[in-house]
Fold this protein.
Amino acid sequence: LLFEKRIKNHNNFGLNILRLGSAAENRHETGLKYMTESKIEKQGIVDFFIFRRKPNSFIPAFDIAYNFLMSQEDVRINAAPSVTTLNQTPAQISLVEEISINNGAAPMDSNKGIVYKESYARAQYGTTIVITPTIHDPEHSEDEKHFVTLETNITFDTIKKNVQNDRPSVSRRHVENHVRVVDGETVILGGLREKTAEDTSSRLPFIGELPGIGKFFGDSKMTDEKTEMFFFITPRIIFDAKGELEMLRHEQLMKRPGDLPEFLERVQEAKRKHKTRLFDNSLKLLFGHVDG
């Protein structure tokens, strides 16, 4: 069983427009806008604005607009492949996507001579698992348990979103592992955790540095991206190639992906963390990232 979870949070809060005196548009308007259409440039951003004409008093005309954004992208990838192999024989599982990659301009012969055209090549990205099992006899005659040594070689590719679709960015993770377990036990390969935090801020000079009110005279953007991946591998020894194989196949078909107890515990833990994530994102709008 393969499980990957990617969470990407965007938080944006700050001053969008500040015009005073003759620079203001000298109109009277107050409003709140929230747009989610894909064609809108400020998709998902709340714009709060106040436009005021110059009153009869000494207060000049002013235009003020703020923008607020809290968005979350949650991606989950699950796969439950199975394979049968012989003792000490590698078995490979590939769950890949084949895409075209732009190699740039290449010379080509034509009736008018040599011309340069874009060339493409096909490349495969995804998950590739190579497992080599080695079966060991019981160490004691009265012991009926067989041990299996698993030599695993796992490559996991993630295609990142990019404006240039013909030259995508690919994040690759590679794991090699040797472990010895009892027949039927589950091996958990984890630790492939990645966290990226990015802060961008722009403020007005002097007044934007004041404690407390300085947040209202600048713009802050925060991006958090978390990636976590786990592999659950369960080896089973088949002694009767016909009878046990049919029974094992029927048992696996009756299962749903994610019926492993270890996996269900991870799901419950993820649900508990999800309840507090929205409140944490709200605090980041005011206080920024806190190392911990």
User: Anything to note?
Assistant: The longest strand covers residues 113-136. Strands lie at 2-20, 29-34, 46-52, 62-79, 91-110, 113-136, 147-159, 170-182, 187-203, 218-233. The chain has a mean pLDDT of 76.
